[in-house]
Specification:
392 residues; Growth Hormone, Chain: A; 17 helices
Length: 392
């Protein structure tokens, strides 16, 4: 298969997955609210679902690595995700919604790190342009959030679920179209082919690695109030659903522009330096969001999404790829995903829910503190150690 064809298939997969995410992230709390859940219940639900990832995501990814399933795992989980979201259609009551959300949390989030593992393998073997592939995910996120926002403004929150189901059908088809498991094509040392849990744990004991991953996880977790409550907060302040969707879209547009120039930045700055900057700018972003609902100021700080999400993501992807053998790539990607989107995000989401009930601004101030703490961790990681490929 040609590099162009590979790039197209990965781009289609990113597009389908992030089309789903674009419908889900900004407006899922509104769908939950439409089913009668309180802000506290929404925060608890999202926190518990995030914590499921702590166990499910690394375990399933490591099983996939050990078995060499690759694409097969992605197809299976895409199918399970589609069926799980379909179970929300007749859902009534907190217990039912919670049970289905747990199944979703154990399947859908894993589609991203497994896809990243497959993509990065192709990028390094065939010299593909990761930024141009990943852009399609961001563009699809915009399409999903705009479509959901427009339908919410015209109809009801039920449309969010139907859009998610349609996007998951496309995700399943794109997963089936992915290439099979990619091998490096080069001879490796026996240790590099070791897929054991013991080998994975030995990697995590490297100086600085856990601290670096924790720093990246905290910055990603600082989005908890944004993901869980910004739509509720802005709508309560008189901002319409379409405008809310535009605010989310603005952040992703800036993210796309960053990906377009990311190659230069990742060559010039170390992952730790990028994380320090992301944490500091995250503190600024959430502090301003806490203080005002003025549209001009919100539009200004939404540009910092390039720092809090995109810079953090690129830094983590490059660090993991440079420090992890290809045989354990999915395991390490999923460990990071569980740490950032599971343990850290779960704790931050629970905190955000409690603070939001006290006062909406408190939730965003709490996230500003989390982002600033991440900068300190990133500074410590830079001093503890760097990837071997960056060592002098």
């Amino acid at each position: 298969m040609s590099p162009q064809a590979l790039s197209l298939r990965f781009a289609l997969y990113y597009g389908a997955v992030f089309l789903t995410v674009g419908c889900y992230l900004p407006f899922w709390p509104l769908w939950l609210e439409s089913r009668g859940l309180s802000a506290g219940q929404i925060g608890l639900l999202l926190a518990l679902a995030a914590w499921v990832k702590v166990a499910a995501t690394p375990a399933l990814a490591h099983l996939s690595d050990r078995a060499g399933w690759g694409k097969g795992t992605i197809v299976l989980l895409a199918g399970i995700s589609l069926l799980a979201f379909a179970a929300f259609v007749p859902a009534t009551g907190f217990a039912w919604i919670l049970a289905v959300q747990v199944v979703v949390a154990a399947s859908f989030p894993l589609l991203v790190p497994l896809g990243e593992s497959q993509t990065m393998a192709a990028v390094y073997r065939y010299s593909l342009d990761y930024g141009r592939i990943r852009l399609w995910g961001s563009l699809a996120f915009i399409a999903g959030s705009l479509a959901a926002g427009r339908l919410l403004g015209a109809f009801s929150a039920d449309w969010v679920l139907w859009l998610i189901l349609a996007a998951l059908v496309l995700t399943f088809a794109a997963a089936v179209a992915l290439p099979g498991r990619l091998h490096s094509g080069a001879a490796t040392e026996p240790a590099e082919d070791d897929r054991s849990l013991r080998r994975l744990l030995s990697l995590l004991r490297r100086p600085g690695l856990l601290v670096f991953l924790l720093a990246a996880a905290l910055i990603q977790a600082s989005h908890a109030a944004y993901y869980g409550f910004s739509s509720l907060h802005w709508r309560a302040s008189g901002i319409g659903e379409t405008t809310i969707a535009l605010l989310w879209t603005e952040g992703v547009v800036i993210e796309i522009l960053f990906f377009a120039v990311s190659g230069r930045l990742t060559r010039r700055f170390s992952p730790a330096a990028l994380l320090i900057a992301a944490g500091l700018l995250g503190g600024l972003r959430w502090a301003v969001t806490a203080a005002t609902t003025d549209l001009a100021l919100l539009a200004a700080v939404q540009t910092l999404h390039a720092a809090t999400f995109a810079v953090t993501h690129l830094a983590a992807m490059h660090y993991i790829t440079r420090t992890t053998p290809a045989a354990l790539s999915a395991s390490m990607q999923s460990f990071y995903s569980a740490l950032s989107g599971g343990l850290a995000m779960g704790g931050a989401m629970l905190l955000a829910g409690r603070l939001y009930e006290a006062a909406p601004g408190f939730a965003f101030l709490g996230m500003a503190a989390v982002a600033l703490a991440a900068s300190g961790c990133a500074l410590a990681a830079g001093r503890l150690g760097r990837p071997a490929s960056e060592a002098a």
